[in-house]
Amino acid sequence: MSRRAYTGLAVAAEVAVPIAILAAWQLWTVQADNQHFPRLSTILAEFQDLWLFAQFREHVVPSLLRIGAGFGIAVLAGVALGVPLGLSRRARALAMPHIEYWRAMPPPALLPISIVLLHDIGDRQKIAFIAFFCLFPVLLNTIDGVRAIDPTLIDTARSYDIPRHERIRRLVLPAALPQIVAGMRTSLSLAVIMMVLAEYFSSTSGVGYVLLISKNTFEMGPMWAAILLIGLLGYGLNLLFLLFERRVLAWHRGWRAATPQ
Amino acid sequence: MSGPYTGSDEPRTIGYTSRMAAPGQAAPGVRPLPAPAARASPQRTTRLGELLLPLVSIALSLVLWEVVSRTELVSQNDLPAMSTTFQELWALMQTEEFWKNVGYTVRGWALGLALATLLAVPIGIVLGTSDFAARAFRVPIEFLRPIPSAVLIPLLFLTLGTTLRSEIFLATFGAFWPLLVQTMYGVRDVDPLATETGRSFGVRPLERLWRITLPSALPYIATGLRISSTVSLILAFTAELFMGTPGLGQAMNFAQSYGLNEQLYALAVATGFVGLAVHFAMTALERRALHWHPSQRAATP
């Protein structure tokens, strides 16, 4: 088989397989007529009814705001804590036991605790919960990124009396940026999961809340529509972040491409 | 033209000028670093400090917890004191119920991780070896992977119900993706020269898989296992908390429903320790399985 024919076949398969899966779903659901697995066409109709855009403001916007706020706080705190921890071995020795413990903790275990502690099931508790668990990927990646900087660079900057804040702004942060961004990407997908968990556990609005209500009322249509929406949300946010990453790290990629490995 | 560090109005000169330092003397504006011996404390003190500092830090935070609660900075009802929590945990540890719950949670984690491994590694090898298969399934994988497994909870609740099967399904689904992706990358990263050499020496495909592909993909698979292990534990616990399958999660749900805050905190602390134990177990396993690999030998001369 020629190379061209092979590529053509591969592209055809790339398009055909997803379509085949969707078609199989539709055919199987029509045939099985199982109330738990509605037809694709039903899910799509329900999706359009709910999210385009009848309940968009009421439930999707709060969820997105919680993700945004929690993620934002996590990134700021993660970098702010990670830089000093990366630079100082002593600070790391102090902080590591806590980081290791909280990182190993399954996040849902803190859901009931966060409600007891904050007396709240609204935005405050949701954002605090999301921010807390999104902190760790950013924090750990920042520490690793800062630690990986060539010590000669830092010593050189120090011996030229470049003030500490300038050193951090012009040397440490840019050098650690690729790793920080990698941590941010992990955190963002974590934020979606934490949002769903927190809202599904207890809330009065949000996509997770719709999931909870439709389960309690045995409405399979809205439930599948919510599942589809959350899937698209995760996929879409990841895609947006990749675009952001390409922009922010353009200089890094260019430099990597230019230097022989 | 003024760069960030050209504050002075003196012209910048490049080359050896009288302003540059003679050998052995610091250049003007350049602060000599203290000699290494003065900067780093002797080896032994550092070692001791590294061992001591974490312990001091843990002790301090426990004391802080106690003080915050005892002084009612946060009411003792909302945040039981550290001593109360650990007393409660100690009392729980005397009960058979508690250890049963720990066992259920660990069982969910282990079965989820095992099933995910059985599925993800073979599929990952196929998708990693065949470029065609990888492209055919790229879109479904890229779409399913970022879906938070938590969305499946209500669906599982209504279809499989509050059963072990639900818990295992959830844990397996979550643990499957990181391991699949890692295996794919690992297999793709096998040195083609090694494979070709094997082929030209007439090594059969299965033998090649066993002796060349798997060993060189193993570090990737091990990383995937470590990630998947965490995910599997989280989702086993999540299933217990949200769906009520027996285990630590269900116990926490009860404690919250009855307003037993001391028990709630004790169980959360215990859950953290289970997480820590699983993490250390997997790290140790990885080190053992990969003791021959350079990534594990960095420290040895």
CATH architecture label name of the domain at 88-293 in chain B: Orthogonal Bundle
Which value, in Å, is the CA radius of gyration of chain B? 28 Å
Shape of chain B: globular
The CATH topology of the largest domain in chain A corresponds to MetI-like fold
Name the shape of chain A in a single word: flat
Helix content of chain A: over 70%
Q: Got a strand count of chain B?
A: 0
Quick synopsis:
The complex is a heterodimer of chains A (261) and B (301). Chain A has 261 residues and is an all-alpha fold.
Give a structural overview.
The complex is a heterodimer of chains A (261) and B (301). The mean pLDDT of chain A is 86. Chain A has helices at 3-32, 40-54, 56-87, 89-104, 110-118, 123-147, 151-159, 164-201, 207-216, 220-248, 250-258. Chain A folds into two domains: 1-30; 43-258, MetI-like fold (Orthogonal Bundle), CATH 1.10.3720. By secondary structure, chain A is an all-alpha fold. In chain B, helix 4 packs across helix 11 (248-257), helix 8 packs antiparallel against helix 10 (205-243) and helix 9 (192-200) crosses helix 10 (205-243). Helix content of chain B is 70%, strand content 0%. By secondary structure, chain B is mainly alpha-helical. Chain B has helices at 36-39, 43-70, 82-93, 96-129, 131-136, 138-144, 152-159, 164-188, 192-200, 205-243, 248-257, 261-289. Chains A and B meet through helix 1, helix 4, helix 5, helix 7 and helix 8 of A and helix 2, helix 5, helix 6, helix 7 and helix 10 of B.
List the keywords.
heterodimer; A: 261 residues; MetI-like fold; 2 domains; B: 301 residues; mainly alpha; 12 helices; globular; disordered N terminus
Outline the fold blueprint.
The complex is a heterodimer of chains A (261) and B (301).
Chain A: H1 3-32, H2 40-54, H3 56-87, H4 89-104, H5 110-118, H6 123-147, H7 151-159, H8 164-201, H9 207-216, H10 220-248, H11 250-258
Helix pairs in contact in A: 2-3, 2-10, 3-4, 3-6, 3-8, 3-9, 5-6, 6-8, 7-8, 8-9, 8-10, 9-10
Chain B: H1 36-39, H2 43-70, H3 82-93, H4 96-129, H5 131-136, H6 138-144, H7 152-159, H8 164-188, H9 192-200, H10 205-243, H11 248-257, H12 261-289
Helix pairs in contact in B: 3-12, 4-8, 4-10, 4-11, 8-10, 9-10, 10-11, 10-12, 11-12
